[in-house]
Amino acid sequence: MRAYETVLATRVLLVADDRRFRALAATLLSRRGYAVSVCTRTCDLAESARREAAHVVVFDASASLTSAARAAARLSALDPPVAIVAVSTNAHPGLAALPVVSKWGPAEALFAAIERACRRRSSSVR
């Protein structure tokens, strides 16, 4: 399978309260070929991921990396598991199982993190 075929099939749920970030990220992800759904952090994350059949959730962890880690635990418990990529305005290394990329950094960094998360998800589903 070619890389562009993988991207075209990837469904991303974008979870953020920041309207500017949601609009920009949704546009960039859509232009890259991802199928994007959007919700705020107040949504029932597991239900939204299940309803949207998301492969990966992009979660704004600017307010709390702990809440992103809890979200990751809930999503990994789903069948099939849903990968998560956290974005943050604060510089921190993240956690071993939770990649964190800069919220306002290069779009390529976010795309690469999503693609890595999808590869990890694919290997755990098999």
Secondary structure blueprint with pairings:
Elements: H1 3-9, E1 11-15, H2 19-32, E2 35-39, H3 45-51, E3 56-60, H4 65-76, E4 83-88, E5 100-102, H5 107-125
Parallel strand pairs: 1-2, 1-3, 3-4, 4-5
Q: What does it look like?
A:
There is one protein chain. The protein is of the alpha/beta class and 126 residues long. The chain has a single domain, classed as Rossmann fold, CATH 3.40.50.2300. The chain is 47% helix and 19% strand. It is built from five helices and five strands, in the order αβαβαβαββα. It has helices spanning 3-9, 19-32, 45-51, 65-76, 107-125, and strands spanning 11-15, 35-39, 56-60, 83-88, 100-102. It has a five-stranded parallel beta sheet, with helices on both faces. Helix 2 links the parallel strand 1 and strand 2. The two termini are 16 Å apart. The mean pLDDT is 83.
List key phrases describing it.
alpha/beta; 5 strands; Rossmann fold; five-stranded parallel sheet; 126 residues
Task: Give a nutshell description of this structure.
This protein is of the alpha/beta class and 126 residues long. It has five helices and five strands, in the order αβαβαβαββα.
Query: How far do the termini sit from each other?
Result: 16 Å
The neighbouring-strand order within the major sheet is 2-1-3-4-5
Helix and strand run: HEHEHEHEEH
Rg, rounded, reads 13 Å
Number of helices: 5
What is the second-level CATH architecture? 3-Layer(aba) Sandwich
Helix content, binned percent: 40-55%
What is the 3D form?
globular
CATH homologous superfamily label = Response regulator
Q: How many E-type strands?
A: 5
Residue-averaged pLDDT, rounded? 83
> Largest sheet, if any?
5 strands, parallel
Instruction: Give the CATH class.
Output: Alpha Beta
- Indicate the CATH topology: Rossmann fold
Low-confidence stretches: none
| Class from secondary-structure proportions | alpha/beta
User: How would you classify the quaternary structure?
Assistant: single chain
How many structural domains? 1
Fraction in beta strands:
15-25%
